[in-house]
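Note to self: keep these together.
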Amino acid sequence: MALLPLESNPEVMNKFLHLLGVPNKWNIVDVYGLEQDDLACITKPVLALILLCPNNEQFNKHAEEESIKLKEEGQIITPDLFFVKQSVPNVCGTIALIHSIANNSEKLGVEGPFKQLLEKTKDLTPEKRGELLFSSEDGESFNLMAAHQELAKEGQSEVNPNEPTNNHFMALIQKDGHLYELNGSKEFPINHGPTTEDTFLEDAANVCRQFISRNAEDVNFTVMALTAAEN
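Structure:
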C-alpha cells in the first residue's frame, strides 16, 4: 500500500508528536519568517526546526556536491546522534519528526511505546534503524507506519500517494554543541558547525536561509519549530 505524505501542517504534526509520547507542554508551530524580529516571537526553548523545501534539480545537485566534499574533508559526527535512513517512500515528514524527537528525547520527556522503539533501534545502523522503525511484523512495537498513514489522511491537500512528491522534509537539531541537518534521503548527517542552546534557533534559521537562497525562484518552502508550548 502506497503511503500518503505528511503535510507541513502544525495541527497534524502536533497530533503525531503527542501520539509518539511527547508531553503536551511541547508543540510544533509555524515559523513565519527567518529574520531576527520573526524569530524573537517564537516561544523558547526551541529544540528543532523542520524545513520543507523543493525536491528539485538544484536541491539534488547541491546534495551530491556536498556529499563528495564531506567524504574528502570529513566532519565531526557525535556518536550518539540518532540518524535514520529513509527506506519507505513518502515518509520524510515522519522521519524529520523522529529526528527531532529522538535527539531531544530526554529534554522532551518522551514516554510510552515509541520510546521503547527508539531504545530498541538506538544501536543499529541508520539503514537497519529505518527498516525496523517502519516494520510492524513483530506485533509488539509501536506501529509507526499505521500512525503515519492515519495522520497523513488528516491533511487538507489532495495528493496521489503513487506519484513522487516535489517537496522534502528535513530536521535541524543541536547535539553536543553542533548543528546537524538530518535528512533521511542523504547518506549521512550534515554538520553545519558549532551552536549552543541559546544560539540554535538563529543558527538553524541561517541554514534554512541558505537552502532558500539556492532556490530563490521557488516559493515552496515552509519552516516549523519544535518548541515549548505557551502557558
